Amino acid sequence: MDSLDPEFFNFFNQSIQSKEIKNLPAISAALYKGLGVLEFYRGEIKLAKNAFKNAKIFYLKDSSLRDAAGMAMNLGVMQERSGQYDSAIINYNETIPIFESLSDTTSLSKVYENIGLLYYQQSDYPTALQYFEMTDSLLNLILDPMNMRWVGFYMNKNSVFSHTNKQEEGLELLLLAFRIAESNNNEYYISKLSSAMSDIYELKGETDKQYEALLRSKGFFQNRGNQYENAMLDYKFGKYHYHVNSIDSAYYFSQKALQYFQAKELGEEIGMVLNQMGNIAFSQEDYDKAADFYEQTSRFLKNEKTEAYAGFLFNTGYAFNKKGDFSKALGYIEKSLEIRKELKNIIGLKNSYQGLAETYEGLGDYKKAYNNLALFHNYSDSVLNEVKNKQLAELETQYQTEKKDQAIAVLESEKEIQELRGEKQQAQIYLSVAGLLLFLGLAGLFFVQANTRKKHNEILSAKNIEIEKQNSERELLLKEIHHRVKNNLQIISSLLSMQTRGLADDKVKDAMKESQSRVKTMALIHEKLYQYENLSKINMQEYMLQLSDFLTQTYRSDKQIEVHIEADEINLDMDMAVPVGLITNELLSNSLKYAFEDLEVGDIYIKFSQTAPGAYRLLVEDSGKGLDENLDIDKTKSLGLKLVRTLTRQINGKLKIASNPGASFEIAFSDESIAA
Hints:
By secondary structure, the chain is an alpha+beta fold. Helix content is 75%, strand content 7%. It contains 26 helices and 7 strands. It has a 5-stranded mixed beta sheet with strand order 2-4-5-7-6, with helices on one face. The longest helix is centred in the last third of the chain and has 86 residues, at 416-501. TPR repeats lie at residues 109-142, 310-343. Keywords: ATP-binding, Coiled coil, Kinase, Membrane, Nucleotide-binding, Phosphoprotein, TPR repeat, Transferase, Transmembrane, Transmembrane helix.
């Protein structure tokens, strides 16, 4: 892997063809696996995929289930690299029950991490982070803090942070990974980390550090046969030269990267480079060429729900703006805005609103141009201040001009003022002298008072700084507490999951799963609290979406069951959010487990809304078989429904149950003090 000498490839290929070895499935499998790893590090994704496929076949012949699952996971990685996301997730999901049945925590952590990466590739960053948190919990159970396994994980987590406006957190992870890689003298990962850090320096505008990091990475990979890494570095050098306005070099490096990616038929990477070449042409004001590159990009971006696709749409529309074809530009930029709203990409939203403002201005719709410009400013404080200052300067100039015009008009029309001014001038001198003496006396008095006030203000300011420092420390401590509580709950959840694998009794398994989901429900609350600036309120819309994703993964089945979330942007404090979250968990779990026993398809609806100031309504209903006619919520033996009843009382709510024909649970409650 370090040298990628052709001699090693020859050894594996010749050994695989040996007649003696062909009759030994375990050795054939190991050889194909080794060859697959080498081809992957050389950047030959197709050859790696074929090698892993053959390794899987031979491992199955040898009844090596764990190793066969490992090859399925490797195939998933190769398919992900090729943009075949559906095939990748099938391979990943195939491995999970195998590793769970074998209590193989190490392999299970790799699967969760790979699934997280797959969602990252599709710009579903919340789900990606959810899987990375699951990975983190498992790794904490089995790894030393300085284990090299952390390095790759931190790099992957940083990739998500870089797309969610958390560059500082990402940099902290990379620096931690650097310490681990350097303590292990691992040049490969040190060079990979340098490449990753160049992306952060680019975002921060620190081009000197960006270039140094790229050179350090290039120095390692240039002397080895890893073509893929070298091509990625060529692409990044192209980006660097584009940002420092060295256009010829930017085009040279981008073209070099494109040739490799085209030869290997790597669609996502081809689209990425074509988009960059469009940017280069755009900077040269060759808008026809830029639009052509952008439209070529669309053929290689298979997933329309990603920031990469939104970026291509925006760039295409912006090029048409510059060409004066505003009607054509409008469709592209509006679609980019829709995608970026779903992804909650702040930087992308800012750009889309700016583009729309220019488009509507070109179309002569000044009201919409103004509205979009206002939204652009909301996402760009520094730009907003600059524009405000400019507007204030213009208004001040206009005001001074009008003031002078009025003064001239008055003087010209009222000559009597000139005469009166002469008569009163002497009187004004006497008054001015008296006024000056009075002013000096008052000034002395004010000076003494000001000195005293200044000392008081300095003392007050010092106290305020100390209070602010203490508040910041308390806030940091509180965030850390929430983080640790979340991690501890996550570990409990993982332990319950591991314990479940060794159980044979289905009822006990179900009970353990239910306990796991309740623990996860509470962990999500603490996770949200340490992520938000507001340490006391939970955004229930985001929370319910994450809870739904987790439960559908937990109770996954072959049935086509869709969960629909309709939740308003409501923030509840922790005392209210925990019981509401647990109620939602119980009702959704019940629907997923029991509502569709005799059905293949179905829908579950979760609606959370504010009916009046301080009053809320939670509705969970499904299209399943409905409730037992004899169900009495007060006498039920179901622990889940007992919890729902108890928690509803805790939030002073009223519970309504109906079958229409599916099960329907409606809870109305108000933001009053919590019941004891």
